[in-house]
User: What shape does this take?
Amino acid sequence: MNEFPITHWLILLIASLFGVLTVIPYQFSLISDKLKTAREKMPLSVLLLLTLIQNGIMIGVAAALGLLAARAVGLQTPLLDALLGIESRTVVPLTLILAAIVGAGAGLAIIVLDRVVFHRHMPAALIEMSQGHLAAWKRFLVGFYGGITEEVLLRLFVMSGALWLLRQIGLDMTVSAWTAILFASLLFGAGHLPAVASLTRLTPVVVARTLVLNGVGGIAFGWLYWRYGLEWAMIAHFAADMIIQFGAPVVNSTFRVPAPAQSVQQIA
Assistant: This one.
């Protein structure tokens, strides 16, 4: 199969843009004040269209390069291959359950690590976010962006590309794979810093928290991509997001997290 996998690319692009659409209500709630200012300059419909176009170009290029790199180093998309009738590795249903369990475990680890290590050092804005003040439907939809769009960008593009480059310089496959996994995980964490910066000042401990917590998930998702395929990483990422979005508020409520000094109003 030397031809460019155009059908795979189209499916991943459309799915990723769906993820972009589903995260918009969540993002708009976080930047409601900035959004009001932006809407004074242009209609919401134009803003949404520009968002889709910008993301479409970025994701389209990333998915294309990622698919080429993945093919070159043996990383796969077994479920997509099966859907399209292309011969691939046998898909074992139990491994899909494993992906969900690994993702849920990563989500739980992130909640515990955040609570035990970072919570006491966090500013009020980040504590407020961990208490589930956004509407449940918005928090649920976030999972599609993380599980699909972020995996196409971080695992398919960044990790596959890094692995391909490392293999070109002659590094062992295992060493190359783990280096690529760690690199993509670090970039995954760094990619969340702008969103965190929109909520609070980026102090050293806030930056460390963002990199470490996202890195935990990134390593788990990267391992699943390497060992099983992209779709396994997607399933795990979605499961982790669900645990974090709905589990963290329960944990913080159970352990009576003190109210932040500057509380943010409940957002419907």
